[in-house]
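Batch queue: ligand-bound targets. Current item pairs a single chain with fe (ii) ion. No template structures supplied; prediction is de novo from sequence plus SMILES. Inputs echoed for audit trail.
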Amino acid sequence: MRQFRVATDIRYGHDSLSSLRQLAGQRVLIVTDSFMTRTKVMELVLRELGQAQVTVFDQVSPNPDVDTVVAGLERYAAAQPDAIVALGGGSPIDAAKAIHSIALRQGADLRSGFIVIPTTSGSGSEGTSYAVISDHASQSKIPLTSDDMIPNVAILDPEAVRTAPPKLTADSGMDAVSHAIEAYVAVGHSDFSDAFAEKALQLLCVNLPVAFENPDNLQARERVHNAACMAGLAFENAGLGIVHSISHSIGGVFPMAHGRLNSMILPHVIEFNAGALGFGPGALTPVGRRYAHLGLMVDVKATTPRGRVLGLIEDCRKLAARLKMPVRLSDAGIAKDEFLRAVPKLAHAALNDRCTVGNPVPVDVHDLEAILMKIA
Ligand SMILES: NC(=O)c1ccc[n+]([C@@H]2O[C@H](COP(=O)([O-])OP(=O)(O)OC[C@H]3O[C@@H](n4cnc5c(N)ncnc54)[C@H](O)[C@@H]3O)[C@@H](O)[C@H]2O)c1
Ligand SMILES: [Fe+2]
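Prediction returned. Tokens below.
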């Protein structure tokens, strides 16, 4: 027996923030970051929570660490809320997930649940059981997973992402693109996850450049926001692969936006997994054929399966270029010699990352080193 699970109640579209009114009369802990507390979205959220008793924990920094979670738990203990509301990108959402999960294990009575309002369209964290917490001691990002980290409600209101500047739209959008593509080929993929991954990638290819170039285009924002959530549901059920393993390992040592790293790594991983550059027409592996099918889904104009894989790789590169993404780490300010010295350690960390088992092609440390060298 296999299972495909969508455990989160998804409220989406214009005015979906109004569903926060269901928390009237409750004690609510908002977990967010110091920037979001000063935005119009926070104003809208507080207006909708007008009848609730609200405490705000706004000390989440990008790529939250163990100390952030401990500080959030202290605020939780002081406020004794009935509900936790996470407001922000993947960082506040992941911090809130860890706080929620630990509080439940300590016997908390969060009877009004865990509600997540993503303000970036990327991590898909609003519908997944994953959280990524940084551990500075081991210079690594630790992906955690637990059923009690799955939000009860996700509110996908395009107003919440409207203020995201183009760079953030690009970074988080390329994270969603990599979720869709990795989930589509991951060992755990199924007809159900394929449906979410395909649709997510189709929506992203069309709407992400529009949202990047026209931040106030709420229609494009909404489609990108929905797509990011769908890509999250795809990987929640299918798993991910070595784009994420490598991204986690680099991100633990060289701080950079997760989606920006994924964007640089993704074309090289497709090449590696598909063997697309290694052999002639008609010789595609089953994994190569899946990438070819995905190419067809996003309208790659090629007449052979191999051409479709190459077209998919080219489309990823073109999309990244349109979003003004760097191609290599050295373009993004990371010194090449310093990075090359770190490659053996990064390759080992990537090999041991939990996403590696989901990759459709087995990898060893030398394969990972070779991919890492390509983005130096
Ligand atoms: N749990 C998962 O399944 C999962 C998946 C992918 C990534 N992640 C994690 O998510 C984190 C990255 O999250 P992210 O890329 O969404 O960004 P983020 O939460 O780290 O936020 C980045 C910056 O953007 C700002 N910001 C957020 N929303 C904004 C808005 N609407 N307008 C203006 N500024 C805004 C924030 O204040 C912050 O300064 C990483 O820690 C990554 O490891 C988790
Ligand atoms: Fe990701």
